[in-house]
Specification:
Elements lengths: L1 H12 L7 E12 L2 E13 H52 L15 H36 L1
Antiparallel strand pairs: 1-2
Length: 151
């Protein structure tokens, strides 16, 4: 590719005895606070054909890095979504079973170390209190029935 560009520039300017030179710099853009700083690593003047080849190389490397970044973002997105969605699904199933009247049901497997785990613990404590209250009501109802039966 660089050879073709060099040949084309020689073809265009060869008759006039002019060789096309392009200022060329390699640098890194650095973010410092809210300022953007360009750090120039090297600066030279090179023939246009060589610059074109190096620019194409940088474009390919840049495109590869963009593609790698996009894939990384997608993978991390799926991982984070999975870490959040699974505990919420367990909480939803446990709450639905509690709402259906299964007070012996406990929510397990939610160990995220955050508010979701705290919510699962609270659901389990609520289910235990409701189960105790239901047992107490059943005992009181039985005692009343026995009292009416003897009276």
């Amino acid at each position: 590719m660089a050879r073709e560009d060099r040949t084309q520039s020689q073809h265009l300017f060869g008759r006039l005895g002019v060789r096309l030179w392009v200022p060329y710099a390699v640098g890194v853009i650095v973010l410092v606070g809210s300022a953007v700083v360009l750090v120039i690593l090297s600066a030279t003047r090179q023939p246009a054909g060589e610059v074109s080849g190096q620019i194409n190389t940088f474009i390919l490397v840049g495109a590869g890095l963009v593609l790698l970044s996009a894939i990384s973002i997608i993978v991390m997105g799926f991982y984070i979504a999975r870490r959040v969605v699974q505990p919420i699904a367990k909480l939803r199933r446990g709450a639905a079973e509690l709402a259906a009247g299964d007070l012996s049901q406990r929510i397990t497997g939610v160990q995220t170390g955050d508010e979701l785990e705290f919510l699962a613990i609270e659901f389990n404590e609520m289910a235990a209190r409701l189960q105790d209250a239901q047992q107490n009501l059943s005992e009181v109802a039985r005692e009343r029935e026995q009292q009416y039966a003897f009276a």
